[in-house]
Description:
F-box/LRR-repeat protein 15-like leucin rich repeat domain-containing protein
Amino acid sequence: MSGAQGVVERASAQLTKRINGLRRGKGGSGGGGGGVVERVTTALCGTVLPPPPPPEKPARCRSKPPVPPPRRTAILSAARRPSKVDELLLDDYFLNFLFRYFTAGERRVLAQVCSKWRDVLYRGPRNWAGILPVVHCRELKSQTERVKLYSSFVRRGFHCLALLSATDEDVVDLVDSYPLSAKQLHSLSLRCSSVTDRGLETLIDHLQALYELELAGCNEITEAGLWSCLTPRIVSLTLSDCINVADEAIGAVAQLLPSLYEFSLQAYHVTDAALGFFSPKQSSSLNVLRLHSCWEITNHGIVNIVHSLPNLTVLSLSGCSKVTDEGVELIAENLQKLRCLDLSWCSRITDAALEYIACDLNTLEELTLDRCVHITDIGIGYISTMLSLTALFLRWCSQVRDFGVHHLCGMQNLQVLSLAGCPLLSSSGLSSLIQLRHLRELELTNCPGATKELFDYLREHLPRCLVIE
C-alpha cells in the first residue's frame, strides 16, 4: 500500500503544481482573468480562437492567394468544460496529460485508484509500452479470475505474455479464455513450467501471430517436441535451462527456422557438433547468437560458427570456458560485422585475444570481458586503440592496474565503462577517468580504491555521468 500511496501522492503534487502555476501566470490586473479550472483546460486544450474576419473580395485581375491550413487547436465545449477540481480529476483530456509524468510501472498503480483512471489508462496502449505481463498460473484459482485478467490484457493492447509455472491445463485455459491471443500475441515466454510437448504444440498452433518464443526451465519439453512444434514464422528463440535440450534440438532449430534472426541458448550438454547444423540457410537472416554457459563448446565450435554465420552482428560466448585465444582469432578474422562481443567468464582468454580484436574488429561498439582473469594492462592498451568502442565492461578483471586505466582515458568515444570489482585500482588511477568527457555511466562497485571522496570528485567533474557506487 505504501508504494500505491506514494504514486497517488505524486499525481496529486503534479496536479497542484499545474493549478498553482496557472494562478501565478494569470494573477495580475483585471481580477485574474477567469476561474482556475477554466485556465487549466485552456492550458491543456489550447486557446479559444476568435471567429475569423470575413475575407475581402479579391480584385478581378489578381489571383487569389493560397489560404494557409487552419491551426489545429483542441477546444473544449462549454458543456464538457469541468467547473470544479473534482470534475477535473475525472476529465479525460487532463488525465491523459497528467499520466505522461509517470512511468509505465507507476501507471499500473494509478490504474487501481478508481475505475475512471483505469479506463483512461487502459484506452492508451502507449501507457503500457515496455511492460511484460506475467501470469502466475498457480495463483489464479477460478475461471472468472482468468477471464477478467485476460480481458484486461486485451484492453491494454499487450502483444507479449509470460506464463509462470504453467501446465497443459493452463494452456487449454488460455486458449479458451483468451481467444483474441491468436492474433494479438506476438511474444510468448514459458518459465519454470511443466508444459509437455503436446501442450506446447497446442499453444503454438493457437498463436498464429507468434514470432518470438522463450522456453526457460521447461524440463518436460523434449527434442521431439521442438521438431513437431517449431514453425517458420518464429524469428526470435530463447532456450535456457531445459534439461532435455541438446545437440538434436539445435538441429531442429537450424532446419525448421529459416528466418531466425536471434537465437539465445543456455544448455550445458550442447557440443561443437550442434553448431555444425547451421547452414547457409541462416547465414543471411541470423544476426544475433548468444551461447551462455555452453561448457562443451570449444574452438572447433567457433570454426562452425564463423563458416556458417558470417553476418553475425552480436555474439555472446559468456561462460564458454573452453574457448581460447585461437578461437577469438577466428572470430576477429571472419566476423567483420560484429557490433557486440561478450567473452565474459571465458577464463582462458589472455591479452593475445584482445590484440586480435583490436586489429580486426574495427566496427565493434560493445565489448564485455567480465571475469577474464588473465587480462592485464597490456591487453587494455590494445583495446584503447579501438575508436569505435562505446561500451566496455571489465568487471572483476583482477590484474588490471592504474596503468591500464590511464590507457582507457584516451578513448574519447567511450560512454559506458564498468570496472566493478577490480581490486588493484587506486583512487589516484580512478580519478583520471574525468578525462572521459562523453562518459554516461561509470560502475565502480566493490572497488577498494573507490572512496567517498573519489565519488564526489567524479560527480563534480562528470556531471552528466551516472556514477554507480
